[in-house]
Amino acid sequence: MNEAAVAEKGDYVLCLLQQAHRSRFNAALEFAVGEANRLKLPVVACFGLLDGSNGFPEANARHYAFLLDGLADVARGLAERGIGFVARKGSPAEVAVALSRRAATLVIDRGYLTIQKTWYAEIARAAAVRVVQVEGDVVVPVGVASDKHEYAARTLRPKISRRMPGFLAGLDPAEVAHRADGLTLDGLDMSDPAAVLAGMTLDRSVAPVRRFRGGETEARNRLRTYLAGPFRNYGAERGKPEAGAASHMSPYLHYGHISPVEIVLAVRSAEGSEEDRSAFIEEVVVRRELAMNHVHYTEGYDRYDCAIPAWARATLEEHGRDPRPHRYSDDELAEGRTHDHYWNVAMAEMRETGYMHNHLRMYWGKKILEWSETPQQGFERTLRLNNRYFLDGRDPNSFTNVAWIYGLHDRPWARRPIFGTVRYQSENSLMKIDAKAYEAAVDALCRAEGAGRPGET
């Protein structure tokens, strides 16, 4: 990433774990271990914890609690391997550059959001040592898969399919030749994530959830349990939120607690039908990496005028003055106080547990478009609610899925009021699921979180 040479002297090889928070199956970390062994140095991993006015945009206590659980877990895993770990308050760039002053080289991982690209550019500009970036949170590197913004999954799928076999390989942890135990580096005590959270200045109006606990250990345990049971019905039941066929891996992928390559390799060797495997890999590779492609090649992916294709904006504008029988405020939406009972149930699941099944997430978003004054307002509200309550909000998948509601990666359909030729989703779509069973499941989940029944405020 820069022209600097490996430092002749250094106390360690530094690895920034800003995207991939895991001590194993981590391509950037394994590269750093290899470099350190070659240079006869220990490895130090680091993380920049954004806090206060410089916090990660739209992140709140729910997101940070999950994140800190993961950092505590990665600190334990790194210590077992003899790798040092330093978490400090500050931007990732500030922390990495400061620690790189004692490093022989700096290895960074890769994400695709604008804020991450800004950090990487600052590191490359300010670090006085060689900076190497290793892409490890997709199966096929984004630039290898495609050199342009793809129109839809159908245009990206064959490109990924051709390249994917070459990237599906295991990644065993290399032995660390020189342990970092003797290094003295100041940082946060990550052994008590609750204490770290209590010491942060952040939005606490959205509480942490009990449904999901962060960390690579939890991610792998969940994956093993899932593949031993519910996965075997994934192909037939993935579209039914009441069936329990979803893996719930999305929060763990979002925080880099597990590698998508590790997941795909486990899925390919698990018991199940070819339909189950193909359908799952389509979601975790093609659909997920279509989202990475979108944010990487779209400047302003979080803005309506940039993220939504021209044909969709034109037809929505044409129908912008159509009567809207139902309109709701932001508070009414967040609290689930609409006329649509099952929409309110889905909103309760998201608000109280940080998750909503994709089938309902699409219905949920289409209704916000229908109930908003303008499509621009609908887009902004959908994204705001998504990023506020979902554990995996503020993610390429979130930005892409919200834009899909408004026509991204889709084609014109039959013309309807309000939507024009953007795909419409009616209440009839709920007939494809057992809505009462879904409501009962959400009721139990909300009670486990200490909340009332869905729709209660």
UniProtKB/TrEMBL annotation:
Key word Lyase present: yes
Organism this protein belongs to: Paeniroseomonas aquatica
Key words, A-Z: Lyase
PANTHER family: DEOXYRIBODIPYRIMIDINE PHOTO-LYASE, DEOXYRIBODIPYRIMIDINE PHOTOLYASE
UniProt-recorded name of the protein: Deoxyribodipyrimidine photo-lyase
Alphabetized InterPro entries for the sequence: Crypto/Photolyase_FAD-like_sf (IPR036134), Crypto/Photolyase_N_sf (IPR036155), DNA_photolyase_N (IPR006050), Photolyase_Class-2 (IPR052219), Rossmann-like_a/b/a_fold (IPR014729)
Obligatory cofactor(s): (6R)-5,10-methylene-5,6,7,8-tetrahydrofolate
GO MF annotations, alphabetized: deoxyribodipyrimidine photo-lyase activity
PROSITE patterns in the record: PHR_CRY_ALPHA_BETA
Source taxon at top rank: Bacteria
EC number(s) reported in the record: 4.1.99.3
Coiled coil, from the record: none
